[in-house]
Specification:
586 residues; alpha/beta; Elongation Factor Tu (Ef-tu), domain 3; Rossmann fold; binds flavin-adenine dinucleotide; binds 2-acetamido-2-deoxy-beta-D-glucopyranose
Length: 586
């Protein structure tokens, strides 16, 4: 077995200490069991996702020619219970994505769902158990401290593999298991805390046995003299610093600072650790983690090169809109099929240097610039190169990159600028609403950008008979009517689509109207109201007329998402409701 061989190598012939040898083998085995257990959990989740997908597929097929879909309007009671109490449930009561804030600027993070907590509890207890199992605590400090030291060090290093894998935007588990980046990111952060604690336990058990043997002065001396110990210390301090400087407050207030510091500290910790592990079998874990990191970076680079540089360069037209938003239209050199719900990362070097920011793709359109010169027959190649793609984003002005960009666009003569950009993607797009007879979309402010492609897709799908949807309701809350301008061109196109009136209803809520004259409903299917929506009432209305299963999607502030979550959970016992939440932060 691999661990046996590795442990023997580490001993380099061995000094005949059979106890140490036993523990050396054991800790490597434990590390392997741990990684296997994680892989097993992911595999289980994969099977669960496949089951849900198959279920949704059959529901969609059944819904195609069926206008009542009565069978799907209620859920199996076990499923309903599971969704209501585990999958969709926040840890306590109703709070999930509304941030805990000390002030407007200081964000203390959010609370996980019960399902996330459950997985997390498994992860933590597994680590605690593997750290202490078979450690000979009864045999005195000197013996057990060494075993504990080696064990915690080994497990910390092994944990780096999933830790690094889950950090990347190109994490293969995202499409495979169908869990979004922010869920994996949640586990990335917790694995990091576990690693930091294990590194601390590792350091302190080394100190304990050293002090026990030779006193405190020996500890300081060894830091000076032994490269092995010094590099270990640097790595441990690095991992702890990574956790401390990765706090939610810093991440949200100064994202770029956080990111650069994060990469720098990670490099320091990894380099120090690679020196520390130079002659130890645990180096394989670090190497695997570093390879995962390198591959992710390479994929990003390759996507960027393919989309933006090989061929024609990508340009972005940035147009300032009323209400602190911009429409960004990207002209891409290649056709790019975007599924509803996908996002991309935007780089604008002249504004944000090498940094990239995630934005949902609101609209995409092939732009056929066929310069049909007379007498020239176009070859397929010509046609391909003439066919371009435009992709549009709706971006809300915040305080960093988006603020600088907005100011630039606003200052220019016609309120728009054209700049060189890089578009990296597509990412995400894990959710599919094609199997729901009834669809409700809740959006707050700029969150509408995530829903627009779904609306377009469902209305088109309804006309073509390709989706189960019979009722699609959009509930959009904005502060003032001028925000309607944000999506006007796209909404106009959607409202003119074939058979739209039969399927789509739009409800606009203006939370801060200046006067009531502003609030006018253009038609029976597009209505405007003052104030905020009452989620409970709106959901009850839909349930009364529910066709098939209901898919509820929300993209807005954390508070809004929590309201919708609670309202859905309260109704899952008697209506088949799936909740899908998209948030613009992590
Ligand atoms: C999947 C996804 C889709 C999004 N889609 C849209 C969209 O369609 N329209 C829109 O207006 N906004 C969208 N956002 C939010 C958008 O990415 C941020 O508002 C933007 O990056 C803020 O940039 P800034 O430098 O001005 O931010 P700041 O004012 O410095 O920070 C504002 C917030 O944005 C977060 N943030 C800043 N930079 C990044 C980054 N590079 N990556 C992740 N988060 C960051 C910060 O943590 C903070 O919470 C989306 C976010 C995500 C995660
Ligand atoms: C701890 O690890 C070191 C380095 O691999 C090894 O030399 C030593 O024998 C181990 N000790 C115990 C008690 O496992």
């Amino acid at each position: 077995m691999a661990p046996v061989v590795l442990a023997e190598e580490a001993h380099g012939g061995g000094q005949g200490n059979s106890d140490a040898e036993f523990f050396n083998i054991l800790q490597m085995q434990y590390a392997h069991y741990m990684l296997l257990a994680m892989a097993g959990a992911v595999a289980l989740f994969f099977v669960w996702t496949m089951f849900l997908k198959l279920n949704a597929h059959m529901r969609r097929l059944h819904g195609l020619g069926n206008d009542t879909q009565r069978f799907f309007a209620r859920d199996n009671y076990r499923m309903a219970w599971l969704k209501r109490n585990i999958v969709d449930a926040p840890l306590f009561r109703s709070r999930h994505n509304r941030e805990f804030q000390l002030s407007r600027a200081i964000n203390m993070g959010t609370l996980p769902t019960r399902f996330q907590t459950f997985c997390l509890a498994g992860l933590i207890s597994m680590n605690v158990a593997l750290c202490v199992l078979h450690v000979p605590f009864s045999e005195g400090l000197d013996t057990f401290a060494k075993v504990l030291r080696n064990r915690t060090g080994t497990l910390a290093t092994a944990n780096l593999i999933p830790l690094v894998m889950l950090a990347g935007r190109n994490n293969p588990l995202i499409p495979l298991v169908g869990l979004s980046f922010d869920t994996w990111n949640f586990f990335h952060r917790w694995l990091a805390r576990i690693v930091a604690l294990e590194a601390l336990a590792h350091t302190f058990s080394w100190i304990a046995s050293k002090v026990n043997q030779a006193g405190w002065s020996a500890v300081a001396e060894t830091f000076h003299e032994s490269e092995f110990i010094l590099t270990g210390l640097v790595a441990a301090v690095g991992f702890v610093a990574l956790v401390l400087f990765g706090s939610s407050a810093l991440r949200h207030a100064f994202y770029e600072t956080f990111l650069h510091l994060h990469i720098f500290l990670a490099l320091v910790a990894f380099i120090a650790l690679s020196q520390h592990l130079k002659e130890l079998p645990q180096l394989v874990y670090l190497t695997a983690a570093l390879i995962a990191w390198g591959v992710e970076r390479f994929i990003r680079f390759a996507i960027n090169a393919y989309r933006n540089i090989l061929g024609k360069k990508t340009t972005a037209v940035v147009q300032a809109l009323p209400g602190d938003a911009m429409r960004i239209t990207l002209r891409l050199a290649r056709p790019w099929t975007v599924r509803p719900g996908q996002h991309m990362y935007l780089y604008i070097p002249s504004v944000g240097f090498w940094t990239s920011h995630p934005f949902s793709v609101a609209w995409s359109e092939p732009e056929r610039v066929l310069t049909e010169e007379k007498g020239l027959v176009m070859t397929r190649q010509d046609w391909m190169s003439a066919q371009k793609e435009t992709i549009s984003l709706l971006v809300r002005r915040r305080t960093g990159f988006t603020d600088t960009l907005y100011k630039k666009a606003e200052k220019s003569a016609d309120g728009q600028i054209s700049v060189f950009a890089l578009a990296e993607g597509p990412y995400g797009g894990l959710h599919n609403l094609d199997s729901y007879g009834t669809v409700m979309l809740f959006a707050g402010g700029v969150g509408i950008t995530h829903h627009v492609p779904f609306i377009r897709h469902l209305v088109q799908g309804y006309a073509d008979g390709l989706v189960a949807a019979r009722r699609v309701t959009l509930v959009w809350t904005i502060q003032s009517p001028e925000h309607l301008e944000w999506i006007r061109p796209w909404m106009t196109t959607i409202l003119q689509m074939d058979r739209r009136r039969d399927v789509l209803r739009v409800m606009l809520f203006i939370s801060r109207p200046r006067n009531t004259k502003e609030i006018q409903s253009p038609s029976a299917t597009v209505q405007m109201f003052p104030g905020r929506p009452n989620v409970n009432t709106l959901l009850d209305l839909e349930i009364e007329n529910q066709i098939g299963a209901m898919g509820v999607m929300v993209c807005g502030s954390g508070g809004m998402a929590d309201d919708v979550r609670l309202a859905c959970r309260q109704r899952q016992a008697y209506s088949n409701i799936d909740l899908i939440e998209e948030s613009f932060t992590w």
